Structure formats: C-alpha cells, structure tokens
Amino acid sequence: MSIENIKLLRALAVFALVVESGSFAAAAKKLATSRSRASETVANLEKELGIRLLNRSTRTLTLTTEGKSVYQHASQLQQ
C-alpha cells in the first residue's frame, strides 16, 4: 500500500470521526490533535476528492449529499 493510500485512509477516518463527533473540536480531542489540524485534514480530503463533504457554519456541520455517501463508505472501513 502506498503512502498516498495510507494518507487517504487516515483522512477518511478523521472525516468519519468528525461526523460521528459532531464537530471538529470533539473529533480533535479524541484524536489528541488540534481542531485546526482536523479541519485541515478534512479540507485536504475534499480537495483530493474534488467534492465538498461538509457544509460548515460557525455552529453546525451538516453532511452534503456527497458527504453522506463518502461517510457510509468511510464508516465501513472502521469496522
């Protein structure tokens, strides 16, 4: 498995944890990293995939249609 594939799998895991936690801050706490690092990881994943996964506002995160599909696959990887 290449480094790029490993990075993609890690980013998918971070994305899934953000969705399950409901926020970047909560996911970052579980990952023992910063909120900005978790946000950057998801933003890089979005760039890599060429789609927006989350709609962000100052108070809420919601999955886009594409994000729901990616989350379903990402959550299966964690099992």
β-strand amount: 5-15%
The geometry reads as globular
Q: What is the helix/strand order? A: HHHEEH
Q: Which strand order does the major sheet show?
A: 1-2
N-C termini distance: 19 Å
What is the SS-derived class?
Answer: mainly alpha
Question: What's the rounded overall pLDDT mean?
Answer: 95
Radius of gyration (Å): 12 Å
Individual helix count: 4
The main β sheet shows up as: 2 strands, antiparallel
- In total, how many beta strands? 2
In helices, the fraction of residues equals 55-70%
Unreliable stretches covering 5 or more consecutive residues: none
Walk me through this protein's architecture:
Helices cover 70% and strands 8% of the residues. It has 79 residues and is mostly helical. It has a two-stranded antiparallel ribbon with strand order 1-2. Helix 2 packs across helix 3. The longest helix is centred in the first third of the chain and has 19 residues. The radius of gyration is 12 Å and the shape is globular. The two termini are 19 Å apart. The model has no long low-confidence stretch (mean pLDDT 95).
